Amino acid sequence: MGLIHIDLFTTLDGRAQAPGGPDEDTDGGFAFGGWQAPLSDEVVGAQILSGMVGMDALLLGRRTYDIFAGYWPHVKDGGDGGIARLFNRIPKYVASRQARNLDWANSTLLGPDVVTAVRELRDRHAKIHVIGSLDFVQTLFTERLFDRLTLWVYPILLGEGKKVFADGVAPTNLRLVEPAVTSPGGVVRQRYALTGGTPGVGDMTDRDREG
């Protein structure tokens, strides 16, 4: 069975809306589109590229798909590390509530039962990446329908914008799969694997009494 990897860029206060550009997502009057760019560096770029090794499918929300489809097919192979070649070649699956034309080669619209459709993708692909797609990602979190979560946490506070973990996320255990890595610009990469069960509880005051 294949694995679903979620890749997200977030601020220190957990905001992940429109990291890439000013017009990416202005819902709610969001004024900080493109907040990721000033803090990007070669370390983060290399981390993103290394994480794509073995990727054989993209799974995207409608808005992110439209952004990618308007950009990557027009990028010539060169300084992008082969991302354009990879994205243009592999299958793309789109979660959208509306019927739509998908002009980007190898693109498929998921059916109305998105949860079932995503589960079926695991039987067809080894390494599926969900990049951005914040609204769609909330469904994957709620359904616990992912296997790996990589967060790049940027050292800024915005105080507004859509959250990585919106209200309604299912209680979930995660396991850190490797030590966190900090880039020269202060961006911290954290990589997690989904584990079973729900978060446990305890009483820290018991330890104080024992001492």
UniProtKB/TrEMBL annotation:
It holds the Pfam family RibD_C. Residues 5-183 form the Bacterial bifunctional deaminase-reductase C-terminal domain. InterPro entries: DHFR-like_dom_sf (IPR024072), RibDG_C (IPR002734). One of its GO terms (molecular function) is 5-amino-6-(5-phosphoribosylamino)uracil reductase activity. It comes from the Bacteria. GO terms for biological process: riboflavin biosynthetic process. This is Dihydrofolate reductase. It comes from Sanguibacter gelidistatuariae.
